[in-house]
Amino acid sequence: MNITGTTRVWGILADPIHHVKTPQALNPMMAARGVDGVMVPMHVGAGELAAVVSAVRHVRNLGGFIVTVPHKTAIVALCDEASETARRVGAANCVRREQDGRLVADMLDGKGFVAGLKREGIDPKGMGVLLAGAGGAANAIAFALAEAGVKRLAIANRTKAKSDDLAARLSKAFPALPVTTEPGGVGGYDLVVNATSLGLREGDPLPVDATGLTSGQTVAEVIMQPAETALMAAARARGCRVHPGKPMLECQLDLMADFLGMRA
């Protein structure tokens, strides 16, 4: 990689930052496309997000940035424009900077998650799904799973007001889909999805009670580092099929690059 005065810059905003994998994927992709650009990690806490976003509007060689935990929900209100998907789910993971400094947001996590499942031979159509989480990624995944034709969807979240809000918006958009925020145990679901950040740090509690998992169920993660979370290990020990977080990223890389303007 040869960085010069003409190199365009993209960032990824997160807190913590050590686990991010997107630069390792998009930098080689830019090189292959002949793009004079680089993506760098940007460690930004929740309290500093608004100030950072305001400042980067004035960075003329900045093409945009990826947004991950914990900023996916907060970023939408800080942008000038948002895609229909980002508005509907109330979260975004990609922000493009236009030449005049305007910021445009989109959310690709849901498309990437469902595409990642299907790539590995897991079709969520007709499945009963338990979704842990009601944050930005969880919102995107919930809507994408509904669009993919799941049979029913249960949402488990520590802050019930957030899961109730997500359930209400899902029910409005998909009135025929049974949605509950009282999932009970993990048994009886074909697919269990962790869309929280629990598992990112050593010692985190499990996002769901894994003792009720049985063989025949699939347990899916959005976390990419560690490659095998404590939930995945517990599910594997109980005979479940496990689906890691990396396919969600891999299946949206081209979408990210195109949206962010990573072209020669």
Polypeptide structure, described:
The chain is an alpha/beta fold. It has two domains: 100 residues, Rossmann fold (3-Layer(aba) Sandwich), CATH 3.40.50; 139 residues, NAD(P)-binding Rossmann-like Domain (Rossmann fold). The chain has ten helices and twelve strands. It has a six-stranded mixed beta sheet. The two termini are 15 Å apart.
Describe this structure in a few short sentences:
With 264 residues, this protein is an alpha/beta fold.
Portion in beta strands: 15-25%
Q: In CATH terms, what is the architecture of the largest domain?
A: 3-Layer(aba) Sandwich
Number of helices: 10
The major pleated sheet works out as: 6 strands, mixed
The SSE order reads EHEHEHEHEEHEHEHEEEHEHH
CATH homologous superfamily classification of the largest domain: NAD(P)-binding Rossmann-like Domain
How many beta-strand segments?
12
Number of domains: 2
- Structural category is alpha/beta
- Terminal-residue CA separation: 15 Å
Using only CA atoms, what is the Rg?
18 Å
Determine the mean pLDDT. 97
Unreliable segments of 5+ consecutive residues? none
Overall 3D form:
globular
What is the helical fraction, as a range of percent?
25-40%
Q: What is the CATH first-level class name of the largest domain?
A: Alpha Beta
Trace the largest sheet across and list its strands.
Answer: 2-1-3-5-6-4
CATH-defined topology of the largest domain: Rossmann fold
